[in-house]
Amino acid sequence: MSASELAELAEEEERRKKRAPWGVIALVLLTGLALIRNGSGEFDVGPPQPATAAAADSRVPGTFAGSAAPQPFSEPDRIRIPAIQVDAPVMPVGLDADGWVGAPPPEDPNLAGWFTGAVSPGEKGTAILVGHVDNKLGPAVFYGLGALKKGNRVEVRRRDGKTAVFEIYGIEVFEKNNFPGDRVYGSKGTPELRVITCGGGFSKQNGYAGNVVTFARLVEVR
What three-state secondary structure class fits 187? Predict the structure, then answer.
């Protein structure tokens, strides 16, 4: 094995060690802490909410016709969701000092975040992208997330020049005090993606009561 190959293996092992255990992230959400804290909810018409029929089928197998092979690590650069006119840059986010999953600056409504404690989009495992539903000026990047349907696609451009294309197989809203962390974040053994924003009911005292979660799986790399 060449020196460069050994270096790549060492880098991947270091990244693996830095990834947060899903149990920790699930605990953060199960204690009722918001994933994204800055949604305002102060508009006459709230963001669309997922239809019951859009719920992910828990029986969806880990492999399926049309799946694409896992990719090596590469940070995401941009996310596109044509069905809801999303085309936004992606920045890395982690856990902040209070144990929250970080989010992009709320002042920039068209910006998504990649949670660095998980895999990169296209790798084997579950990648996580987050973004605000709104801010004080109006709708933000993932305002329309709840309007997505099964079969819609999410395209994530990676810094290695490849685009990982994911097909949505479920969109659901979960209460923050009853968030199914294992179900949302757990690896199915294949490349998957979760796109998450705030959702559910809103109050000025507590903000949004839930999180909208989009479940998707890798179907193409181009």
Answer: coil
